[in-house]
């Protein structure tokens, strides 16, 4: 799971390879944090709390890959050309959550969902996705001073957790 963050209002832990945290980023903006491993499927929420009436044309998803230019993924009820470059791994659920199948390291970054309700209320949700790779885990353990022999002994555990 992710480390403690005093700015978060709630923390929900999933399976050993998945962590989710919720919080408030700024006035009018909600925020969620997900950590998954390469190859997983993840569902990023568009609405937190009560479901209001949304028109599919009023939902927008965009992606910010580690500080690069924002890329529009879903707008006016359809996926954009940039989203199609993700080889059909994206879908949007009935409640407008973004589903990413077979997650890759390149999917790490910030995802933003903007909704505009029929009564013109604007909602913005930022979802930070961190994708963990084997190399990342080896780096973390080396920073903690875990030597190669210990890593070799724990190899079967890593392979189990990382599906390899």
Automatic annotation (TrEMBL):
Gene3D superfamilies: Immunoglobulins. Residues 16-123 form the Ig-like domain. SMART domains: IG. This is Ig-like domain-containing protein.
């Amino acid at each position: 799971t992710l480390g403690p963050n005093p700015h978060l209002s709630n923390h929900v832990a999933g399976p050993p390879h998945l962590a989710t945290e919720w919080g408030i980023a700024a006035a009018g903006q909600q925020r969620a944090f997900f950590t998954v491993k390469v190859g997983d499927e993840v569902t990023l929420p568009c609405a937190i709390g009560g479901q209001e009436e949304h028109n599919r044309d009023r939902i927008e998803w965009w992606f910010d890959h580690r500080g690069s230019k924002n890329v529009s993924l879903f707008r006016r009820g359809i996926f954009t050309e940039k989203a199609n470059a993700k080889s059909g791994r994206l879908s949007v659920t009935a409640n407008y959550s973004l589903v990413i199948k077979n997650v890759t390291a390149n999917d790490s970054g910030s995802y933003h969902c903007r909704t505009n309700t029929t009564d013109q209320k604007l909602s913005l949700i930022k979802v930070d996705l961190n994708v963990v790779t084997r190399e990342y885990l080896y780096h973390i353990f080396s920073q903690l001073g875990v030597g190669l022999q210990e890593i070799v002994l724990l190899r079967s555990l890593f392979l189990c957790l990382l599906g390899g």
